[in-house]
Amino acid sequence: MFIKKFKIVSIIMAMVLILSQGIVFAGNVNAFAIKISGPGVEKELEFSLDDLKAMPEEAQINEEYIYNSKSGQKSVKVKGVSLAYILEKVAGLTVENALVNFEASDGYPIDPQTLQDILNQDLKYVLAYEIDGEPIDNDDNPESEEIVIYRKLKEEGEFGTVFKLVVRITVGEAIEQAEESVKELTKPEIEPVKEIEEIVFTDITEEYKFAETAIYELAKRGIVSGVGNNIFAPGDVFTRAQFCKIAVEAIGYELEEYSGNFTDVKAENWFAPYVEAAVREGLFTGYTDGTFRPDKEITREELAAVVGRAAVLAGLVDQEKMNKFVMEKTSFEDKDEVSSWAANQVAWLDAQGVFKGVAEEKFEPKKVVTRAEAALIVYNALFNK
Question: Per-residue pLDDT tens for 79-110?
Fold first, then answer.
């Protein structure tokens, strides 16, 4: 009997030992804050927060970082380690320039950075382990080791300089210097119209100053125009037909003869060629009853869907990448009210800071867009890069 009990106890102790070892092992699976790898570095490395804090003084950064959010410009006191130092001095770079990808633990897409930017001492990319004197916890799990990457602003009003929940940095293969300008070259290339006289709108009051630059820049390009007598009418609205013209002009598509696809659009209508081009290229769609509803006032979510499609067609973002942006990740209080057919575009545009000055706490997807708001959204999304 004693021997039997001893065997049982031994088996239980062995199982406890095995399980405890498994638990220890599992606990170490994500025991690092950041992993660095890729063909552009000599060695693959993992760093815990303690590893980062133990870096030499020359690697440490402790200073103010300014960044832009939907609620305005903010600043934080950041403590962390220079990403350039880690790549150059610790990981060992094997390339002079490459695309560097930041992978977030929640899968949120982050635009690739260039190694040239990361090594730029003015931009000071930092692996932050402390913000305003407090440890970082964006995943609501105080047990996980977490960093946030900050970088300095390259230009005034720039968004996308804070990268949260980054767990992996991958340095890619060497790229030619000329490839850096690819994104710039794929933007809509709309030549400013030759102005006979200076464009002046007398009704851009203080209420509409937020869109003044956008209105004039789009007017110079011939994308928007006034309503006569130096009046822009910023508080008025755009119809679907009117915004078809703006979308087609912004991308620079050729007009074609109207093919008669909609029961409420006639070939003699001024907007018919624009509707044809917009629908042909996938910027707009009609309704299931065979109508286009050209005189219907365009709403925020409708306009956002069109502008998001335009950004894809202009080569500013891949459709596959845009599809990864979801409303759940936005901070809009009414995010659940955005229609599913516009959700990816709204979320992507929001992440680019396009709605700054138009939509802050709430998006109000069914609200009709004013001419000033429409100008700002188009300019920010397609030209203000």
Answer: 999 999 999 999 999 999 999 999 998 888 88
* Alpha-carbon torsion, ordered 55, 78, 83, 26, to 10 deg: 70
Residues lower than pLDDT 50 in the chain: 1-29, 177-188, 190-196
Contacts of 48 (CB under 8 A, 6+ apart): 31, 32, 33, 145
- C-alpha–C-alpha distance, residues 67 and 291, integer Å: 45
Q: Is 5 helix (H, G, I), strand (E, B) or coil?
A: helix
What was the pLDDT predicted at 139? Answer: 81
Structural domain spans, the chain: 34-183, 206-238+297-382
How many Å apart are CA 37 and CA 31, to the nearest integer? Answer: 17
pLDDT digits (tens, 9 = 90+) for 252-311: 998 989 999 999 999 999 999 999 999 999 999 999 999 999 999 999 999 999 999 999
Q: Which residues contact 97 (CB under 8 A, 6 or more apart)?
A: 114, 115, 116, 174, 175, 177, 180
Q: Which residue type, as a one-letter code, is found at position 127?
A: L
In CATH, the number for domain 34-183 is: 3.90.420.10
Give the H or E element holding residue 50. helix 49-53
Residues 133, 77 contacting (CB under 8 angstroms):
yes
